[in-house]
Amino acid sequence: MDARLLLLADSRLPAGGHAHSGGLEPAVTAGAVTDVAGLADFLRGRLATSGLVAAALAAAACAHAHTGDQAWERLDAEADARTPSPAQRQASRAQGRSLLRAARTTWPHPALEALATAVREPHHPIVLGVSAAAGNGTPHQAATITAYGAITGPASAAVRLLGLDPLAVHRTLADLASGVDRIATEAAAAPDDWAALPAPSAPILDLYAELHMSADLRHFES
Amino acid sequence: MSRGYVARAAASVERDVGGRTRLTRLRSDGPLALRETAEALYLVGAAAGPLGGDDFELALEIGPDARLAIRSVATTLALPGDSESRMTVRATVAAGGHLDFAPEPTVAAAGCHHRSTAAIDLAEGATLRWYEELILGRHLELPGKHTSRFDVTRDGVPLLRHELRLDDPAVFGSRSVVGDAKAIGSVLLVAPDLSREPHTAEGLAVLPLAGSGVLIAAAAGNSAVLRRRLAQGEELAGSGTSLNAMNAGASSNSA
């Protein structure tokens, strides 16, 4: 694997990812996740739903970046249509904006400029996919990085919020690794027709995202 | 090996010169029967099921300024069979047209393997109410596999693409997906003057979409509570709007 892609997958990339818990904080607030077993169950559902949606959008964006075509607003609209929660759309665009800024400096590429010109605050998975392309990655690699991030972000948030044993949490992530690979494969195998990209929903994550927006005290933005 | 029913039903409505909506096409097919009443066009289950292997499709066409309400007389019970059962609805709604689609709940019985698909193309200026309730298994029964996909475009732009994949209990039973809910439902409202405010309550989220629509999503331990939550969500999203008047007046016939 190209080391540029390792930089993209690294949580130390200064792209603001640490400020988002992927719905884990409201789940903790609701008492739904209290321990490592609960976290594993939460992550399994997240990976197969919003994780797959994001991975498929990232793979499509990566493939599209390699063609040099425009039409980024159309892919961005496909992300909107798969994100009914306004709070999740806002969080995705905020993360997209931060990553776009980091990526344009880190891996200058015409597709990143084209995306930035077409959409003011693109959705996060689209920026991830174009960044992967800028790092010479394949759509499958873009999907893997995205699916991986869909569980590692909430997992590290759980360590911080619940004081869980980091080794036990990493054991959980290792157990989910084959699931990440399966989701990435499904995402990368999705049809070229953007309309037909996967769209599995997670009603509880939607509800949590909205609850979190109206919460008085928040550690994470989402 | 037995083969399932293949049924293709269709209905088209147009607005006539007198301003009334008129059925211009009505096609029932085997177990997918349509009956016209004063209030709505009713889906009448002329056979049990769908059973595995059945492949049903309903095509609806709503002309400019015409209105169509779809209801059903009974719960749909998705039952097991040799292979997957399928129900597909395709609808186009022209400018000024309105579709109010609200059949009785679907019950995913033990062992079923059902796939439900709906694709709705709205013209700019068309409005929609799309109401769905899904019950996971009959009383004290674990459901079979039920997957659904709902695609709505408005003036060619995607408004909502929404799947509910209830095929792997380790995934859908996750506390981040549907948890231990036994009844799941949603209402999609599309109209120009809906509330842009999100709302949440126990088991209920009212979600204004990026385009001009609101998705009301609810989950509950039983169908009665689900229905109450969806009604509350509709009230929050569309109270006092043009859509309320539209649904109250929606009719499938010319009487």
From TrEMBL, chain A:
Its main location: cytoplasm. Residues 85-95 have a biased composition (Polar residues). One of its GO terms (cellular component) is cytoplasm. Keywords: Chaperone, Cytoplasm, Nickel insertion. It is found in: Cytoplasm. Residues 78-97 are annotated as: Disordered. GO terms for molecular function: nickel cation binding. Pfam families: UreF (PF01730). The keyword Magnesium does not apply. InterPro entries: UreF (IPR002639), UreF_sf (IPR038277). It comes from the Bacteria. Belongs to the UreF family. Required for maturation of urease via the functional incorporation of the urease nickel metallocenter. UreD, UreF and UreG form a complex that acts as a GTP-hydrolysis-dependent molecular chaperone, activating the urease apoprotein by helping to assemble the nickel containing metallocenter of UreC. The UreE protein probably delivers the nickel. HAMAP family: UreF. This is Urease accessory protein UreF. It comes from Actinomadura rudentiformis. The lineage of its organism: Bacteria, Bacillati, Actinomycetota, Actinomycetes, Streptosporangiales.
TrEMBL record, chain B:
Its main location: cytoplasm. It comes from the Bacteria. One of its GO terms (molecular function) is nickel cation binding. Pfam families: UreD. Keywords: Chaperone, Cytoplasm, Nickel insertion. It is found in: Cytoplasm. One of its GO terms (cellular component) is cytoplasm. UreD, UreF and UreG form a complex that acts as a GTP-hydrolysis-dependent molecular chaperone, activating the urease apoprotein by helping to assemble the nickel containing metallocenter of UreC. The UreE protein probably delivers the nickel. HAMAP family: UreD. Belongs to the UreD family. Required for maturation of urease via the functional incorporation of the urease nickel metallocenter. This is Urease accessory protein UreD.
